[in-house]
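Section 3.1: Structural characterization of target chains.
Under the original work plan, the team committed to producing a structural model for every single-chain target entering the pipeline before any wet-lab resources were allocated. The record below documents one such target. The sequence was received from the expression subgroup and is listed exactly as submitted; it comprises 232 residues.
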Amino acid sequence: MSTGRQPRQLAFELAHTESLTRDDFLEGPSNAAGLALVDGWPDWPNRVMMLVGPQGSGKSHLAAIWADMAGARLTVAHALTAAAVPGALATGALVVQDLDPANIDERALFHLLNLAREDEAYVLITGRQPPSGFEHGLRDLRSRLRAIPVVNLLPPDDQLFRALLVKFCADRQMSVDETVIGYLASRIERSFVAARDAVERLDAEALRLRRPVTRALAVEVLRDGDGATAGR
């Protein structure tokens, strides 16, 4: 027996690639120090530097820009092994992403820092917390990490936050006007992760309903999303 309900449309999630070139990097006061570090290479105060900031703050984008400039290889911190260190430093420049003290091979990292110093290689490390707060079993590793200069990336200001929303929409080929951007900016947490999540959900709902992306749709999406209307 028919219930009279319309069948729910399914939206197929397609891969959306963000461009990580220098031209696509959105500049603002919150990331000015990080951009200055990348643009200032090779005249760094130390051959090993660290970018610290919250998830989605631009660490990977800045690291990708620098890797292109310096011919650096890229590795993820948790995948680093002692045997892989010489090869990782083969080009004289290396990006180590997402350094997390709870999920690294301490001896591999210690070997990396020592070999980088011996070979005068450049290393850019990214992570969510500065090494000053790390607790490691290897005392010498603690001292090595705490000697690394740290450049902090901060939460975005209002202008950069709106620009991020526009960029995330453009990355997904979404056509939106200022009313949509203004509504999102005023209703969601001012963070990179919240901006990306809101745009993703808005895009998915527009595809599912086959509706244009409007302020009215944004109201519906944020109203229905758990915690989406958290104020700034």
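The beta strands are 48-52, 73-76, 93-99, 122-127, 150-152.
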